[in-house]
Automatic annotation (TrEMBL):
<keyword id="KW-0813">Transport</keyword>
<keyword id="KW-0109">Calcium transport</keyword>
<feature type="transmembrane region" description="Helical">
    <location>
        <begin position="61"/>
        <end position="81"/>
    </location>
</feature>
<feature type="transmembrane region" description="Helical">
    <location>
        <begin position="21"/>
        <end position="40"/>
    </location>
</feature>
<dbReference type="InterPro" id="IPR005821">
    <property type="entry name" value="Ion_trans_dom"/>
</dbReference>
<dbReference type="InterPro" id="IPR027359">
    <property type="entry name" value="Volt_channel_dom_sf"/>
</dbReference>
<keyword id="KW-1133">Transmembrane helix</keyword>
<keyword id="KW-0851">Voltage-gated channel</keyword>
<keyword id="KW-0472">Membrane</keyword>
<dbReference type="Pfam" id="PF00520">
    <property type="entry name" value="Ion_trans"/>
</dbReference>
<protein>
    <recommendedName>
        <fullName>Ion transport domain-containing protein</fullName>
    </recommendedName>
</protein>
<keyword id="KW-0107">Calcium channel</keyword>
<feature type="transmembrane region" description="Helical">
    <location>
        <begin position="202"/>
        <end position="225"/>
    </location>
</feature>
<keyword id="KW-0407">Ion channel</keyword>
<dbReference type="GO" id="GO:0098703">
    <property type="term" value="P:calcium ion import across plasma membrane"/>
</dbReference>
<feature type="domain" description="Ion transport">
    <location>
        <begin position="1"/>
        <end position="234"/>
    </location>
</feature>
<feature type="region of interest" description="Disordered">
    <location>
        <begin position="403"/>
        <end position="430"/>
    </location>
</feature>
């Protein structure tokens, strides 16, 4: 797909003015073919991921918009609409096909880093931009008051002057880029025909240049550099000696620990405690076993769904994976997310999801039905309460039995059935 995107951009760059009909037809045919391939790619993703999962990714939404825009562009191209006879220029819609090149950003680490830096910088740039607009507004009003009667010269002309507010704003923007601000200043010494005010004009131009060009513009650069450094530190944190939060070796350890306890893809809920205490970190708790109370709290945090009284391999793996990812996000100041909302740019998480869903496609389809399921934590907590109540009841019965007469004990034992211990769980197993 990436090669086809590059080919699509190259084909768009091959058009020129007054092309022969056969050349124009060839380019249109190639564009039509490539757009058809991109449409099929989108449809395959819809079928494979489902619409809900598909539109959870920002990149997928971006692709969808580009595909629909490309379809509209092709329809207008082949419809033969002439811009000379219509107010609408159909070539404007071709911008959707040009924007497709941004899909390459996600494949190149450096470009992806720069793009994320710009996105993270937008809130701060918005505030700095508002301050810059305020400075422009003040200087435009002051310039109209001071320089509206300046006669035209080499630099002060109908395109650059302070006679109207819009033209003054455009002139100030031009000055903020450093273009000919000193020439504008020299032409403005004569504020009115025959009247010169060099000190005021010099103060106006130099103060604006210092504030806009040397201060606020550098603030823009500083904001971008700060966010770029933050993104670099974020990536370096994943490449330190401890490595990324998860890798394929951790998944293999999870699989081996699972097969040591269960042969199939389902594990009885009573064995989850034992499994977690024998599984090595970061997914497991080996070396730091939890008590029943701590285990229940931990299970409520990761929320492992049950199927009957069993837990599926994928459900437990995804729950522990999400827990590791959220711990890392909290440490880096991020927000907790669900496994389905983990960013696509996290390659490790993307690989885990792809491997698990490819191995268990039926479970993925069941998940998309969003059937409410009870969790391991709820079951474990309920069994703990039942166990506590049974032990308390057995202790109370034993005390009552000691206070009974021998004859009463014999009668009570003949009348009462034995206690069934079907809910006993060996929580201390390791």
């Amino acid at each position: 797909i990436m090669c086809l995107i590059g080919l699509n951009v190259i084909v768009m760059a091959m058009s020129y003015y007054e092309m022969p009909l056969w050349y124009r037809f060839t380019l249109k045919t190639i564009n039509l073919t490539l757009t058809g391939i991109f449409v099929l790619e989108m449809l395959f993703k819809w079928v494979g991921l489902g619409l809900r999962q598909y539109f959870k990714s920002g990149w997928n939404i971006f692709d969808c918009i580009i595909v629909f825009g490309s379809i509209v562009s092709l329809v207008l191209d082949w419809s033969g609409i002439d811009k000379s006879t219509n107010n609408f220029d159909p070539t404007i819609v071709r911008i959707f096909r040009v924007v497709r090149i941004f899909r390459l950003v996600r494949r190149f680490r450096g470009l992806n880093r720069l793009m994320k830096t710009l996105v993270f910088s937008l809130p701060a740039l918005y505030n700095v931009g508002l301050l810059l607009v305020l400075v422009f507004f003040i200087y435009a009003i002051f310039g109209m008051y001071l320089l509206s009667a300046v006669p035209y010269g080499e630099f002060i002309n109908r395109h650059a002057n302070f006679k109207t507010f819009p033209t003054a704003m455009v002139t100030l923007f031009r000055m903020s880029t450093g273009e000919s601000w000193n020439g504008l200043m020299h032409d403005s010494y004569e504020v009115r025909p025959g009247v010169f005010n060099r000190p005021a004009v010099i103060l106006f131009y130099i103060s604006f240049t210092v504030i806009s060009l040397m201060l606020l513009t550098n603030v823009f650069v500083a904001v971008v550099l700060q966010n770029f450094e933050r993104e670099m530190n974020r990536e370096e944190a994943e490449l330190r000696s401890e490595g990324p939060p998860l890798n394929s070796q951790h998944l293999k350890a999870f699989s081996h620990a699972w097969t040591d306890i269960e042969d199939g893809e389902y594990m009885h809920v009573t064995k989850v405690h034992q499994f977690l205490n024998t599984l090595s970190p970061p997914l497991g708790l080996r070396g730091n076993p939890l008590s029943i109370k701590e285990m229940i709290r931990f299970l409520f945090e990761i929320h492992v769904p049950m199927s009957g009284q069993h837990v599926h391999f994928v459900d437990l793996c995804l729950a522990l994976t999400t827990q590791i990812f959220n711990q890392r996000e909290r440490a880096m100041g991020g927000k907790e997310v669900d496994i389905s909302a983990i960013p696509e740019e996290s390659e490790v998480m993307k690989m885990i999801r792809a491997q698990l869903w490819r191995t268990f496609p039926q479970l993925k389809r069941d998940k998309e039905t969003n059937i409410q399921q009870s969790s391991v934590a709820e079951f474990t907590a309920a069994v703990s309460v039942q166990r506590w109540w049974r032990l308390k009841k057995e202790g109370r019965d034993a005390l009552t039995l000691r206070n009974m007469s021998p004859r009463k004990k014999a009668q009570d034992s003949m009348r009462r059935p034995p206690i069934q211990d079907t809910m006993r769980i060996d929580f201390d197993a390791s």
